[in-house]
């Protein structure tokens, strides 16, 4: 077992070299707490132990991260879990093949609405301070109906990127309440660090982004948190390490060493006794540049829901390693693909399903860490069918019945059906 100096938070074992030699990996990231594993690997010696140097480059948007990886300005990147899936499907601008051999964990997202909207929800539906995600969504639907009858403009809601967990989770929450995300509201892209200011200025009426920006808005008194990622689907992958397939094929040993370093960093991040050191590093201007106390409470799942003192403890708000949180499971990539189909971003056919599943690479994970670190169930499994891992609306996703799953939603916006070879 690697011995950690808990005072300094650094790995005490010496660096390990290999036939590929020590390497500097340029890695793009967005200032979010879910970059913790990548930051910890760079700052606390885990990469160094594997003969790697991580040159972390803070970026301003997911589109930039995507493009800079494609144009070889980055070797690896902190990426939204749907981004490699979209890339392998050829979706979006400048699609370039991208794979994910490692997930950076689960959790970290939340949905925040303006305090004005939340007060209207309280008036319309008598929604309580402890309302569930589904109750909040239904209350929001009542407010939207009132606004429609009064001729008010539809609310503008921010999310981070069209092919993002935030987009799909926001849409899932809205649709579960009977709201059509493409008709009843206006969804726009807002970079995470700008969401709180945009909400305060009235440029948006709500947003779904990663920590710590939801709590920043709530503590400023401009927003109310109404749902977290765990409320929508606890096992949903959040961020991954993305890389080009050709780079991975030409640097197999470096990929394995990187995964070993990230695995060790993820284990370290999961221990609460390391959170003070982690929060202090994340708060630095080089990384998130947010108050260290907010980051510390976010890591512990201690939420300030609003500026009135209402609080909520979210167990396992971040899972950096536990529960096989780093395993890149293809059935989760297929669920992401199902949401792309549901919202008209992708067509449904067997070739596309195979391409979507190929974005997540458990084979590279197993090569680096061995079978003892992999989950006991199949790579492609039924999702949302176990206690503690339910979708908020009670749906169950069976990848073998992908078409039936999408058809079963009452709120959707699928592409016109055109039969092709190999329908799912």
Automatic annotation (TrEMBL):
CDD domains: PBP2_NrtA_CpmA_like
Any Pfam family the entry gives: NMT1_2
Entry annotated with the keyword Transport: yes
Organism: Rhizobium sullae (Rhizobium hedysari)
UniProt keyword annotations, A-Z: Cell inner membrane, Cell membrane, Membrane, Plasmid, Transport
Protein's UniProt name: ABC transporter substrate-binding protein
Location relative to the cell: Endomembrane system
UniProt main location, coarse: membrane
InterPro entries: NrtA/CpmA_ABC-bd_dom (IPR044527)
């Amino acid at each position: 077992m690697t011995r950690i100096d808990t005072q300094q938070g650094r790995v005490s074992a010496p660096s390990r070299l290999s036939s590929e030699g020590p390497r500097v990996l340029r890695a793009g990231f967005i200032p979010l707490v879910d970059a913790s594993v990548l930051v910890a690997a760079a700052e606390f010696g885990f990469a160094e132990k594997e003969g790697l140097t991580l040159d972390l480059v803070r970026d301003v948007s997911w589109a930039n991260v995507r493009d800079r990886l494609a144009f070889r300005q980055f070797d690896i990147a902190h990426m939204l879990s749907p981004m490699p899936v979209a890339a392998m499907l050829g979706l979006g601008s400048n699609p370039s093949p991208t794979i994910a051999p490692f997930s950076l964990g689960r959790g970290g997202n939340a949905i925040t609405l303006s305090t004005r909207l939340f007060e209207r929800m309280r008036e319309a539906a008598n929604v309580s301070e402890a309302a569930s995600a589904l109750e909040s969504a239904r209350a929001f639907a009542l407010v939207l109906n009132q606004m429609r009858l009064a001729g008010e403009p539809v609310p503008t809601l921010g999310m981070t990127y069209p092919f993002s967990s935030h987009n799909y989770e926001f849409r899932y929450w809205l649709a579960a309440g009977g709201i059509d995300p493409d008709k009843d509201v206006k969804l726009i892209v807002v970079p995470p660090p700008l969401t709180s200011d945009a909400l305060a200025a009235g440029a948006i009426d709500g947003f779904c982004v990663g920590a710590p920006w939801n709590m920043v808005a709530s503590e400023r008194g401009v927003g109310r948190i109404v749902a977290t990622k765990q409320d929508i689907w606890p096992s949903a992958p959040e961020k991954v390490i993305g890389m080009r397939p050709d780079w991975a094929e030409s640097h197999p040993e470096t990929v394995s060493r990187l995964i070993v370093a990230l695995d060790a960093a993820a284990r370290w991040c999961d221990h609460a006794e390391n959170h003070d050191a982690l929060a202090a590093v994340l708060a630095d201007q080089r990384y998130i540049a947010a108050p260290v106390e907010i980051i510390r409470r976010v890591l512990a799942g201690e939420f300030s829901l609003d500026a009135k003192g209402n609080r909520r403890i979210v167990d396992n708000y971040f899972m950096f390693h536990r529960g096989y949180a780093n395993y890149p499971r293809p059935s989760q990539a297929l669920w992401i693909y199902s949401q792309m189909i549901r919202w008209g971003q992708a067509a449904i056919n067997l070739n596309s399903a195979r391409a979507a599943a190929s974005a997540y690479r458990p084979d590279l994970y197993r090569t680096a860490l061995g079978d003892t670190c992999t989950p006991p169930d199949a790579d492609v499994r039924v999702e949302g069918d176990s206690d503690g891992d339910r979708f908020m609306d009670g749906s169950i996703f069976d990848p073998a019945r992908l078409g039936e799953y999408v058809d079963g939603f009452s709120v959707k916006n699928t592409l016109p059906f055109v039969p092709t070879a190999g329908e799912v």
